[in-house]
Amino acid sequence: MRTLRQIIVAIFRIAIAVFAFAGTYRSWMFIEPVRWLYFTTDTNVLVGIVFLWAGLATLLRGVQPWRWLKGLATLCAVMTGIVANTILPAPDIAHNPYTFGLIPESYVVHIIVPILVVLDFLLNDTHRTYRWHYFLTWLIPMFVWYGIILVHAHLFPHQGISGKPTDHNPYPYHFLDFPAIGMRQVAINVALCLVALALLGLIIIGIDRLLPHGAIMDYNASSSQRSRKD
């Protein structure tokens, strides 16, 4: 029999997936397929898939997503939130589509989804399961992502990404635009991004190792029961 906590966690995880998919529908509905080149889009679609899987598995007592995969989704979501809110220019909310007709799309994919993913990691995950080498293997998809960007730029050198009529730049981010800033600067930027991701991955693994083995909510519940018995 499912417990109330299992139902709440399942709903919470499915809600994360709904937000992630809703914030990226223009990509996966192929209304604006070039948006797949954005790290934010790829991250949120990954989060949507992983958390829909996790939510249904929690509800149906099925097999949970692989720890490596869920960790990757968590890492990418955290990186998306940090970079979008500290480095990239603020989005033009006046021209931003509204998710569910209420929330600017940029807020959903850059703020709401990363925060919810972090909360799920802290409260609902079983901890002390990440292996130390994950922080290196989590970097592999980044090489694939940038490789796709380079291939796209080579094949469609004048296809803009932002959707603006005046945009003919095939690079989704200025710090990756080597015709504009030079290959040397792009190499430095990519190296810095990889180092930042590796360090962030190590931090996530370190936090995972420090937290109680079981989910915090379960740990708190069992602690309360023990206290009452004492």
Task: Please explain how this structure is put together.
This protein is an all-alpha fold and 230 residues long. The protein has one domain (4-229). The protein contains ten helices and two strands; from the N terminus they run ααααββαααααα. The chain has helices at residues 4-22, 25-28, 39-60, 67-86, 105-123, 134-137, 140-155, 178-181, 183-210, 216-229, and strands at residues 98-99, 103-104. The protein has a two-stranded antiparallel ribbon. β1 (98-99) and β2 (103-104) form a beta hairpin. α1 (4-22) runs antiparallel to α5. The radius of gyration is 19 Å and the shape is globular. The chain starts with a helix and ends with a helix.
- Uncertain spans: 219-230
Helical fraction equals 55-70%
Q: What is the total tally of β strands? A: 2
Q: Can you tell me the number of structural domains? A: 1
Series of secondary-structure elements, N-terminal to C-terminal: HHHHEEHHHHHH
Beta content: under 5%
| End-to-end gap | 28 Å
| Biggest sheet strand line-up | 1-2
Alpha plus pi helix count: 10
Major beta sheet summary:
2 strands, antiparallel
- The Cα radius of gyration reads 19 Å
Question: Quick gist of this model?
Answer:
With about 230 residues, the protein is mainly α. It has ten helices and two strands; from the N terminus they run H-H-H-H-E-E-H-H-H-H-H-H.
